[in-house]
Every structure is written in C-alpha cells, then in structure tokens.
Fold this protein.
Amino acid sequence: MAKVLKSPTTCPLLLQNKSLIDALGYIDTEWNDAEARIKAQRQIEKEMNTFTPNLNEYIAFLPDYTPTFQNRARLLKEWKRVQAQVALNAIDMNRYNQHSIYEPSRKNVGSARAWKQANDQMKILIEHRHNEVLNLELEQKYVSNVWKCKVAVLEQLQKEYTNEHTNRKAALDQLNQERKQFQLLNSKKLTSYRRKYEQLLQKNHEIEMACKAYEMGGAKRLKTIA
C-alpha cells in the first residue's frame, strides 16, 4: 500500500481543468497568461481540424445499415415495427384490470359464447389477484432477508471500492509529490535553458536583420558604382 501523504500536492493546472495534463504543471507559469491560453487553444483547434475524417463527420461516410435477418419474416416485421416506432401490443395488460369484467349485453344475454367469455375473463382476474396476494405473502416472509443480504453485499463492495480509492489516491498523491520535487529541483536548469533558447532566437533574429541590411546596403553600393 502506498504511503499516504499528510499534505497531498495537486498540480495547479489539474485543479483548474482535470482534463488538462501539463508535463511541467508545477513550474510552467505561461498558462497563467490569458494570451498564452488563447494561443494554445487555437493551436489545438488547428491540429484537430487536420483530423481525417472530420470529428463531426467521422461516421457520415459509412453506408446506412439495413439488416436482412436472412430473410426471416418475423424478424423483418419486428424490425420494421421498431423502425416505425410503433408500440408493442403483443401483451394486453388491460385484461388484468377490474374494469375488464363485464356482463353480456342485452343483445347477447342469451348467448352461451358471450357468457363463457365473461366467465373466462373473471377467472383471469381472480387468478391475477391470487398471484398478487401470493407475491405479497412471499414478500412479507422472505423480502427482509433478501434485502439484508443485498445490503451486506453492497456494504462489502463499498468497503472494497473505498479501499481501492484510498490506495489509488495515495499512489497518485505520492506520484504528484515526486513530480513536484523533481520539477522544482530542475526548475532553475529548465529556466536557464529557456532563457538561452530565447536569447538564441533573439540573436538569430538580429543576425537575420543584419544580413538583410547588409544585402540592401550592398545593392545600393552596386547601383552607385554602376
């Protein structure tokens, strides 16, 4: 298990934006400059525009997919129903509603078939109510133990995840501390390299300007001699 730091150090840039990762987050101060941030963002967007295909059209070139289901009629019919967003009415839940009980109308009061349908509907509703009562009795008898088991499992998972989170956070804090110490230890050297780099750029610019001035002066002398 990694050693937990008493005062964990977090990169300032990660505090500002967790999706941003800077290799020198503890000593890189250029990001504090608004112009530098805008310039960096423009460079990122410019690079993203070179992606092929474009991020907004990365699947547009793919053809539309239409399954054939090996020409199986039932699957094709169901696929068309889903595509048309038609509700599935294969199961009629209204038959379990108490309002579904009815007597045959006066017109069919003498019809044995109508009375049989009404009787069958009554049997369905009675069986449904019986199942509801049975489920409630089973719930009353066993559900408390089921929930106790579920709570115990969740508590164990929560304990394991907490330990894992603690270990990972400790390892991350240790890594950040090492990164900070390493960057601060070498910050003077990096700053010196950066200063030399800027001086070389300035010197190259001065040499370039001097060369242009010399070329222009040479051209003028040639014209004077001519």
DSSP finds five helices and no strands in the chain. Residues 9-65 form one domain. The CA atoms of residues 82 and 207 lie 72 Å apart. The radius of gyration is 39 Å.
